[in-house]
Amino acid sequence: MQTVTEIALEKAVRQVFTREQAALWVGSRGARLDALLKRAVASREIWRIHRGLYCLSDRYTRGRINPLELAQRIHGPSYISLETALSQHGWIPEGVQAVTSVALERSRVFDTPVGLFSFTRVPQRAFLAGVRRIAVEGGGAYFLAIPLKALADHVYVQRVDWCSAAPVVESLRVDGECLAALTAELFDEVMTAYQPGRVTRFLAGFRKDLKL
């Protein structure tokens, strides 16, 4: 009889699978399934990401699991934002230790064998305004905030009272040349996401500085 690992190597889409999928593979949802999964995790053939979500270990994937794509499976609805998004876009110079996301539900942190995943709740009127779907080679995808949306989320999460472009450059060390990519249309789109308050004041002041 095949082990869960052997079946996952054949059937797991992009090396990730759920407990429900494993139950269908082995034809059991009870103690037998739990024993098979526990054995595979103990032997480090499979990694448990969190309750009900697993992936093949690096022994089989050789680092091919995309953490940004995996974040969407761990906790959602969510999109990559904050420091990770700014780093992905090349707006901040330093590397980011955790994969940072914004979530519609409660804030949570997951420390997994693949890495640390942080999800912060940001209430919004239009959750995916200023967010783009990024296709991944091989058929996967994840949602990524555009730089302006990531900055707006940063203002909300850090509770900073920014009303101009200066702190973006000085505090986050964003290269001034990056700001040239911002347009009036992007400000219009991102502004729709938030209730009037700290974030909308920041966006209005930032836009005024850029004369857009």
> Given the helix and strand composition, which structural class is it?
alpha+beta
Record field, number of beta strands: 9
Shape: elongated
Q: How much of the residues is beta strand, in percent?
A: 15-25%
Strand order of the largest sheet: 4-5-7-6
Poorly predicted ranges (pLDDT <50, ≥5 residues)?
Answer: none
Helix content: 40-55%
Order of helices and strands: HEHHEEHHEHEEEEEHHHH
Query: Which sheet architecture does the biggest sheet show?
Result: 4 strands, mixed
* Cα distance spanning the termini: 65 Å
Count of all domains: 2
Rg (CA only): 20 Å
pLDDT averaged residue by residue: 93
Please count the helical segments: 10
Question: How do the helices and strands line up, and which of them pair or pack?
Answer:
Blueprint: H1 4-11, E1 16-18, H2 19-26, H3 31-42, E2 46-50, E3 53-56, H4 58-61, H5 67-74, E4 78-80, H6 82-88, E5 99-103, E6 108-112, E7 115-121, E8 131-136, E9 140-145, H7 147-158, H8 166-171, H9 184-191, H10 198-210
Helix pairs in contact: 6-7, 7-10, 9-10
